[in-house]
Specification:
about 650 residues; alpha/beta; Rossmann fold; Helicase, Ruva Protein, domain 3; five-stranded parallel sheet; two-stranded parallel ribbon; 26 helices; about 50% helix; binds adenosine-5'-diphosphate
């Protein structure tokens, strides 16, 4: 083509050429497009709120010129007919490209860009460029002239929409960059590259756009190769465990053994520890301490009531609202691939039509398989072999045997009264004081009071209830202290009459100090506020009535203290001996020995005995509550 001859405009240029008139959707008359006003009307009607926007760059009147050999516009025509716009197939066209572009609306960024492109390129290259623009898909066409989907063709440049769009664009570029620089395994990398290619071609309005983008964001956020360095110092670990927890010697010993093996042999295919014991005995908090000693991140996954296997393994991405499972979510939260995961309450996993989560956990907990764990959402394998799993449960009876088999059970028994007192004074009270903004100079809880709380206000193997009661005491004292400060401030003020302050003194002197009495006008209470039994009664109310025979409760306690049948067997032996001792010493009413003998013959080799049955037999045994209580507390009953 010579540079002087008019440039041939390919007929499939995304411009709507109109000749005689256009029948706009919904109208009964053709609108002729011979005037600029009508042209504007047609343009706005056609390009506004319709999918045509993504196809048509502009509307121009068609000038008949038989010399031109341009073809019809089949794709455009068919599309327009489906949109109920009837227009005459364009006649051959003779117009220079620049003239054509000039006729278009220059305020449209795409057109402006096209114009700039035409100005900057050599004329000979223009037909080629245009042809290449036209042969590609709409999206690609638009990309060539560096604009976004023409949904936005009518917007005003420089508006907020523009900025949002640029941000989106930047995000995708960033995402792509992150994928390129991420240290994910090859397989995952391939999937990501494929998905980002798809994402780039997708219009943002497509529901799949958000899904794919979320997926890719998760993929780049996952800690494929990021881990913390273990601090394996057994001596430090021992000190830390001792500082954090009183008693629990057996558990701490086993945990230290476990850590020592890790220190010597950096083979992470160790057993999965499962702490089994009644609530509130510190199973979770030992797990947290293990993470602290190792210098690892800690993440707790509560499994109580989980009855859908997708909770563990995630939903396939084909589902609406699909998301990854808790394991992958946990990894994303902690941001490293070697955290300590505490699988809390594995004994409370449920089962439903949505599958068996315990079965999904089998793969997670098996050191032979978990280096290749595949979450349904990710659909690529993630290596879980660096994760340290610790499970907790109240009983082993409801843990599926296959899962139980994968774990090493460590029993955490309930505490004795003495241990509870020590735990309260070493750990719980300081923690509660700190939480309530109190200092030891403001409150004093003697050991007898703690014993009173334990024996009269709580009935538990652990210390959670005790902790709550101490919290209630701290709250009451906090009110008192805050009120005291307020009154002090009032008395300091010179405008308070002297007599008033004196009167308050008298009231203070004549009335015994009561923690609950907040209506009195007493002076600030004497510090530290001593919590004695009366104060306890004021704050916590009357003690739990001591039931002389509460076999159901105590049998249940016995069960929670010795959840396995072998332990029950030991319990029964202990009971037998207790009976003998009691009978020999003549102390109190001897339990019915005949009934103790009727207790089921549970042996270590008889794991199938349902605990409930045993418990009801225990109830019938007529053993004094105190004896059972002592046994449940782990004390010898004599
Ligand atoms: P569990 O997981 O066994 O139900 P938690 O670990 O949640 O119990 O413990 C409940 C509370 O009791 C925690 O605040 C914990 O610190 C405290 N606790 C339990 N046992 C001890 C202990 N031996 N020493 C110090 N605090 C303890």
């Amino acid at each position: 083509m010579s540079s002087l001859s008019p440039i041939q405009i390919p007929s499939r240029l995304p411009l709507l050429l109109t000749h005689e008139g256009v029948l706009l959707p919904g109208s009964t008359m053709r609108t002729s497009v011979d005037s600029a006003r009508n042209l504007q009307l047609v343009r706005s009607r056609l390009l506004k709120g319709t999918s045509l926007q993504s196809t048509i760059l502009g509307v121009i009147p068609n000038t008949p010129d038989p010399a031109s050999d341009a073809q019809d516009l089949p794709p455009l025509h068919s599309m327009l007919s489906t949109n109920a716009v009837i227009f005459k197939p364009p006649k051959p066209l003779s117009i220079t490209l620049l003239e054509l572009v000039e006729m278009l609306d220059m305020s449209v960024p795409a057109v402006a860009k096209l114009r700039r492109l035409l100005d900057s390129l050599p004329r000979e290259a223009l037909p080629d460029i245009l042809t290449s623009i036209i042969r590609t898909s709409n999206k690609e066409k638009l990309q060539v002239i560096a604009i976004r989907p023409i949904r936005r063709i009518t917007h005003i440049p420089g508006t907020l929409e523009d900025e949002d769009e640029d941000e989106d664009n930047d995000d995708i570029v960033m995402l792509e960059k992150k994928i390129r620089t991420s240290s994910m395994p090859d397989q995952a990398h391939k999937v990501c590259v494929k998905e980002i290619k798809r994402l780039k071609k997708m219009p943002q309005s497509m529901p799949e756009y958000a899904l794919t983008r979320n997926y890719l964001e998760l993929m780049v956020e996952l800690p494929w190769n990021k881990s913390t360095t273990d601090r394996l110092d057994i001596r430090a670990a021992r000190i830390l465990l001792d500082n954090d927890h009183y008693a629990m010697e057996k558990l701490k010993k086993r945990v230290l053994e476990y850590l020592a093996v890790r220190q010597l042999k950096n083979n992470l295919k160790g057993p999965i520890l499962c702490f089994v014991g009644p609530p509130g005995v510190g199973k979770t908090s030992v797990g947290r301490s293990v993470a602290k000693t190792l210098g690892r991140e800690f993440h707790r996954i509560a499994l109580g009531g989980v009855c859908d296997q997708s909770d563990i393994r995630g939903h396939r991405r084909t589902y609406v609202g699909s998301m990854p499972g808790r394991i992958i979510n946990g990894l994303k939260t902690v941001g490293v691939n070697n955290p300590v995961f505490l699988l809390d309450e594995v004994d409370k996993l449920g089962k439903s039509l949505q599958g068996d989560p315990a079965a999904a956990l089998l793969e997670v907990l098996d050191p032979e398989q978990n280096h290749n764990f595949t979450d349904h959402y990710l659909n690529v394998a993630f290596d879980l072999s660096q994760v340290l799993f610790i499970a907790t449960a109240n009983t082993t009876a409801t843990i599926p045997p296959a899962l139980l088999d994968r774990m090493e059970i460590i029993q955490v028994p309930g505490y004795t009264q003495e241990e509870k007192i020590e735990i309260a004074h070493r750990h719980l009270i300081p923690k509660q004081l700190e939480q309530h903004g109190l200092t030891p100079q403001q409150i004093q809880i003697p050991q007898v009071t703690t014993l009173d709380i334990i024996t009269r206000y709580t009935r538990e193997a652990g210390v959670r209830s005790l902790d709550r009661k101490l919290g209630a005491i701290c709250r009451a004292v906090a009110v008192k202290v805050a009120e005291g400060q307020h009154r002090e401030a009032r008395l300091d003020r010179p405008d308070v009459a002297e007599g008033e302050g004196y009167r308050e003194h008298i009231v203070e002197d004549t009335k015994p100090e009561s923690i609950s009495d907040t209506t009195d006008l007493a002076l600030p209470p004497e510090m530290p506020i001593l919590i004695d039994f009366h104060a306890l009664k004021d704050i916590l109310g009357p003690p739990i009535p001591a039931v002389p025979h509460a076999p159901v409760r105590t049998a249940a306690m016995l069960h929670s203290a010795w959840p396995t049948t072998s332990q029950l067997y030991q319990g029964k032996a202990l009971l037998g001996r207790a009976c003998k001792r009691l009978a020999l010493s003549g102390a109190g009413a001897a339990p019915d020995r005949g009934r103790v003998a009727q207790l089921p013959e549970v042996t270590v080799a008889d794991p199938g005995t349902p605990p409930k049955q045993t418990s009801s037999q225990l109830e019938k045994s007529n053993i004094p509550t105190e004896t059972l209580k002592k046994l449940a507390d782990g004390e010898p009953p004599w």
